[in-house]
Design a protein that fits this description.
5 strands, alpha+beta, single chain, about 25% strand, about 35% helix, globular
Amino acid sequence: MKTVHIKAITCPGCAFTYEMAGAATGQKGQPKPGHFGCCMKCGQVLIFTEALSVAIPTTDQLTGLAQRNPFLFDQITAMSAKVKKQNQLEQN
Ligand SMILES: [Zn+2]
């Protein structure tokens, strides 16, 4: 996964601030509105907004991604599950 320097974003799930983003397959370079991502701290799936901040995607947005790009959807949900599982292990 390549990382790029981005405008600071704050995860709505855990309030962690990022200045780097890892580009998922098919999303090269700077994030654009509508691009999906995953918080590496809490595993929250994120979507870039028009202002290039991040929000929690709606069910419709996630369904749309799964239909348009099932591979990317799988990649992001797998990453989210992995981070969440890791967090659970660390808490126990
Ligand atoms: Zn987070």
